[in-house]
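Changelog entry

Holo records now carry the ligand SMILES as an explicit input line rather than a separate metadata file. Below, a converted record for fe (ii) ion, shown in the new format.
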Amino acid sequence: MLVIYVKKRMEISFIAMLLFAPLMLSFAAPYIASQSVENTMQLAATNTITRGPLIESTTNESTTIYWETTESAPSTVNYGKNTSMLEVMTNSTSDTVHSVKLTGLDLDAKYFYEVESGDAQSEMYYFFTAPADGGKFRMVILGDNRPSSSTAPEQPEVFSEIIDLSIGEDPHLVIMTGDFVYGVTESHSQNLVAWEKFTNITDRINHYAPIIGVIGNHDTGASTGSRLLEYYFDAFLNFGHSTTYFTFTYAGADFFILDSEEFGLEGRITGEQYEWLEEALSSSQSPLKIVSAHRPLYSISHIGSALDVNITERDRLQNLFEDENVTFFTAGHDHSYNRIVVNGVTHIITGGAGAPLYNTPWGGAYNHYISSNFSYSEIDYSVIKPSGVVSEHQKIPSEGPIEIFLRGFANTSRKENGTIPEIYFSEVPVTKYFSWDGNDNQTELTGLPDVEGNHTLDVYAENEEGQWGHVRYLFEAYIRDTTGFLPPDDTADGGMSWITNIAIASIVAGAAVAVVIVFLLRRRGKI
Ligand SMILES: [Fe+2]
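Structure line, unchanged by the conversion:
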């Protein structure tokens, strides 16, 4: 009986399934259909790399590679010492922002790589690992690429050319000394456009080498009344740092990146930043210390508004560099190339990557980048024009007599009597002499003589090897007249100009006339 009952139940169930199947299918169909559309869409979806891959930071045994994608996906880097790239590093966590660290690499080696996220795959690029501490590494330095107008965010064409030439240098590192965009405004969309035009160019070299971005006065948004730094931080990976001043080490060389644009402290390295720098430099054991800021200490076109806004602080910074054996300081801000060596510290201005050039009495107003080799024993660098012509080549340490430099105002400048030229020596002289107009040598430099007209200044400096350096300068002196007004001054940094004096004289004369008129009117009882 039980068997018959079970059989009957199965028959009834089967019949019921046949009867209700169409109904069940009609309910389930939309769900099945939507699932199948979704699967089809997933298959059709194409992940895209929207930024990168970029080399974030490199040591002598590792590198970190960064990229961004439209869709969330795992991160894979294929890499190797030849283009077959047999090594694979995968991070299985899905994300749209990818950062993969490759470790166990050989030092001073070239590695090819490509990245993958889902079905997105990059082109093949390469990077170099750092040499052993003290070994020679290549560095490109360039600065002041910014557009010339706020209404045209396009980057200068010459900047793009310089980046392409720089890729050909196969640099281990790239330093950019600031002023990347024309300005950061209150318009977020405008800022995004301006910075994207910048990173579209810099990312081309960032595929191959880490870039260090030194913040410039055009990059901070200070004109809006507060600092808008998100664009700067998005543009530069800066060895993983998200502050505007920081330090990092590469091949045993210690780098100190400064912010000369702190809000309200523009043109000054002071307060907490100075204390931080003092501590960081004194705790560095490296024989190769490299410092960079946007504004130079010894400007040639922003005299008085570079890091010499406060001369006492500028000199304190230079003294710190000397005390802590800083070898090399690089800046931008002046749109030109310039070199000065002060007591063993080489100062380079490289501001020729595309912004409108500045003519100065010191020359250097041409587009360029710097291709350099650094090691514990030697630094050598070439200043290269977009044509490929090397305009200057220098080695540190240099050989031969002490070099003598004039700053503040230029050779042949017209200045008031008593004005003291700024003279600097490439190293501290054992003996130094100054002579005005061929007269007796003096050990201390005095100001322009009290005689109107041309004067020569001879400067002599002896080094420890007994070699003498000598330079003769020519200046024109003028003397303040009895009214206290200054005649015209042909230098940019001069005191009050004659135009200013005329304006003041006009105001004084006008006020005097007004007093006389009021006096006369009162006497006549008119007021
Ligand atoms: Fe600047």
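Spot-checked after migration. The helical segments are 2-44, 157-167, 188-206, 230-235, 271-283, 311-323, 498-523. Residues 426-495 form a domain with the Immunoglobulin-like fold (CATH 2.60.40).
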